[in-house]
Amino acid sequence: MENATVRDAKLKQRWEELVHTLSTRFSSDADLDLEGMLYLVGLQELGQLHKRFKKDDNVNLMHIGICTILEPYGYYRFDHFDKDGWPHFELVAPLPALKPGEQKLLMKEALVDYFLEKGIIR
What we know:
The structure is a single chain. This protein is mainly alpha-helical. The chain has one domain. 57% of the residues lie in helices and 9% in strands. It contains 4 helices and 2 strands. β1 and β2 (87-91) form a beta hairpin. α1 crosses α4 (100-117), α2 crosses α3 (55-70) and α3 packs across α4.
């Protein structure tokens, strides 16, 4: 079993690779942040990449991103697609009470895992 220091170093390296890879592909002048990556996951999962979205849709896309990346951790489960093709999830287990830094670490880890699975990073 890896110790925490090795795991943290590997996560840091993969996170930096992910930021570089996605920022190069999708952002012309700035690195993508956590919210930008969640938005990209939401777009990917919705599958309507060429559509223009309203402000409320943007929030929903980030929610899809969060649910998608936390699903393998057992917090959410895909439930159904609605008539417009939007995925819906149900909360399976309450999210743990985490400090902001711990929340950010969980999201980074889940994003890295998602993009590793998709073959975007190695």
